[in-house]
Design brief:
This protein is about 0% helix and about 50% strand. It has about 280 residues and is mostly beta strands. It has a single domain, classed as Beta-galactosidase, Chain A, domain 5. The strands form four sheets. A nine-stranded antiparallel sheet has the order 8-9-10-11-22-19-18-13-16, with no helix packed on it. A seven-stranded antiparallel sheet has the order 5-12-21-20-17-14-15, with no helix packed on it. It has a four-stranded antiparallel sheet with strand order 1-2-3-4, with no helix packed on it. Strand 20 (about 240-245) and strand 21 form a beta hairpin.
Length: about 280
């Protein structure tokens, strides 16, 4: 199993292309910023228990595996243990090829032939660049069909959660979800779900997609005297906040489309959808 190790000053990042093209560790001064993956997670061949994994060619769930696009009815099989709705695309569960790598950068790619899973051909790419100021992740998906297809991108990082962890993330609306995590209504962000000013994550239970995101979020660990500034370019103007009960992590996921809305996206023949996500750690 190949682990790509990037090092720059006080920062260290390890990548596991064979585990769903995932980040398996991200540290500053040997302190974990993301949930570290254990040996079993790395050996599993999937990214769901790693530090961060890619969401391609769609984020979150597709209700009953059914979507309609350009007059075509498409049905997808369930792909996630214990979930009857297809979720998070193909990339997280496949091996990615190493295109290139050195001490501070790496490029990995996944080529999808459309025969299983997502029914359209595409090539997904992740380019990692680490310097002393932070980690930059460029994500891209190339449509390899001769016609337009639905397509999206996202990244699913698991931030370490302490009792005093805080989040600052400005959004305009949120999708309420049903018991299966499917979106049912877009509403103004209620006060108890708002992170428009910094507030503790403790006591908040969420698995919801927020709209009108400005592409910026701050994760703060007061006792550690540490924070991470997360910035995301277009097309990432939605963010999923996942804060489960009694877990040692929470997630702030930049995504290109709202949950359940992949059929409303459109990537032209031979076109590319691309965006950039940056993690910059600072001392408080």
């Amino acid at each position: 199993m190949t682990i790509l190790s990037l090092r720059a000053g006080r920062l260290a990042v390890d990548l596991a292309p064979s585990a769903g093209g995932s980040i398996v560790r991200f540290m500053r001064d040997a302190v974990d910023l993301l949930r570290p993956a254990d040996a079993a997670a790395i050996a599993s061949g999937v990214g769901s228990d790693c530090s961060a994994y890619p969401l391609v060619p769609f984020s979150n769930r597709i209700a009953n595996g059914h979507l309609a696009f350009d007059g075509r009815d498409i049905h997808l099989e369930a792909n996630w243990p214990g979930v009857r709705h297809p979720m998070h695309g193909d990339g997280w569960s496949h091996t990615w090829d190493v295109v290139r790598g050195d001490a501070q950068s790496a490029e990995i790619a996944y080529v999808h032939d459309g025969r299983t899973g997502w029914p359209f051909r595409y090539r997904a790419r992740q380019i990692y660049r680490l310097d002393e100021s932070g980690l930059t992740v460029t994500m891209a998906i190339d449509n390899r069909e001769s016609f337009a297809v639905p397509a999206g991108l996202g990244l699913h990082p698991f931030f370490v959660r302490d009792d005093d962890s805080q989040l600052h993330c400005r959004t305009q609306a949120v999708w309420r979800a049903d018991a299966e995590g499917l979106p049912i209504e877009r509403i103004a962000v209620p006060r108890e779900w708002s992170f428009n000013t910094p507030r503790p994550v403790a006591g908040v239970v969420l698995d919801n997609c927020f709209d009108g995101w400005d592409g910026q979020a701050t994760i703060i660990w007061p006792r550690r005297r540490l924070r991470v500034e997360l910035t995301a370019s277009e097309p990432f103007r939605h963010v999923v906040i996942y804060a489960p009960v009694d877990q040692a992590y929470f997630c702030v996921e930049p995504v290109s489309h709202a949950n359940g809305q992949i059929a409303r996206t459109r990537l032209a023949a031979d076109a590319t959808l691309e965006g950039e996500i940056v993690f910059r750690p600072f001392t408080l």
